[in-house]
Design a protein that fits this description.
single chain; mainly alpha
Length: 309
């Protein structure tokens, strides 16, 4: 198998996978093993350990008494889980299950728990929630789920090389948007879709979150970040569902990624993790800042550093 490829074009990787009649994950695992000069099983085991950490976030993240260090957030995952497990969800067990898992991991992060940045701490709930929910709902094996993370990682690498994964550089579209795209690709593969369908899902997921600003209240990765993890995983399922139905994105994924870069570059610095604009600058946002850090001086963030992933 020819593995001389880089992560600068998702279309190129998809074409190679389809030429060799293999899933994206298999191609990526083989390439990474070759690049790292390790066996495929050794590389797989590293990813399996990441997946184990992801799965271990759910129970502590669903503790109804969990609260973030700031005291601003916590307990939402427990509420969503109760609704999901009682069958009272409007959207069924798949979406409601993904919602509570995304909230659980994001809330655990805010409470200084152990998470996997996938691709960032601020967006850490989206990809794990998607894959863990697919495993639960579709009865998938651990190996299938771990392999899907290689597909997701390829998407993340292409985005990192052509745009950004950092809220401080590209806004929340770069964090939750990238995570949603990565999750959408993983879902498609887990559902038996083709590499081309995964590519379409990436494009759709990113288009639907294009332009999302990064405006953390009080400079902390909590408000609105945690709920954006929930919306991000829901968006990933929407994108995957459309792609699996044979619906294509009019704009190719690689072009959407480049558009995201241009949008991020054009975005005001006040909307890129500085806590100087958007929701952070609302009256309630400023009151919450004062609640945590005391009176605001100079009309801007206190520089606490909490917004950095």
């Amino acid at each position: 198998m020819e593995l001389d490829f880089n992560y600068h074009s998702l279309a190129a990787i998809v074409t190679l996978a389809e030429e060799h009649h293999v899933p994206l994950s298999q191609l990526v695992l083989a390439q990474q093993a070759q690049q790292l000069e390790k066996s495929e099983e050794a590389v797989y085991e590293q990813m399996r350990q990441n997946y184990q950490v992801m799965s271990e976030c759910i129970e502590p993240g669903c503790d109804p008494d969990l609260r973030s260090t700031s005291g601003l957030t916590g307990g939402s995952a427990a509420k969503m889980r109760r609704v999901s497990e009682r069958g009272g969800s409007l959207t069924g067990s798949v979406i409601s299950g993904a919602l509570y898992r995304a909230l659980a991991i994001a809330e655990l992060n805010a409470a200084m728990g152990r998470i996997v940045a996938s691709p960032t701490a601020g967006s850490c709930g989206i990809l794990p929630a998607a894959v863990l929910t697919m495993q639960e709902e579709k009865g998938l094996s651990e190996r299938e789920c771990v392999m899907s993370l290689f597909t997701a990682s390829a998407v993340g690498m292409v985005i990192a090389n052509n745009a950004s994964l950092a809220g401080a550089q590209g806004g929340c579209q770069a964090e939750c948007g990238s995570a949603s795209a990565m999750a959408a690709a993983a879902i498609v593969e887990l559902a038996g879709g083709t590499p081309s369908q995964a590519e379409q899902a990436v494009a759709i997921a990113l288009k639907n979150i294009l332009g999302l600003v990064c405006d953390p209240v009080a400079g902390l990765v909590e408000i609105p970040c945690i709920k954006r993890n929930a919306s991000g995983v829901a968006g990933a399922f929407v994108a995957a569902e459309l792609a699996l139905a044979g619906i294509d994105s009019a704009i190719p994924a690689d072009e959407v990624i480049l558009a995201m870069k241009r949008v991020g570059d054009a975005m005001s610095p006040t909307l890129k993790e500085t806590a100087e604009g958007g929701l952070a600058a609302t009256p309630t946002g400023r009151k919450l800042h004062e609640q945590v850090f005391g009176p605001i001086t100079g009309g801007s963030c206190s520089g606490c550093g909490g917004c950095h992933s």
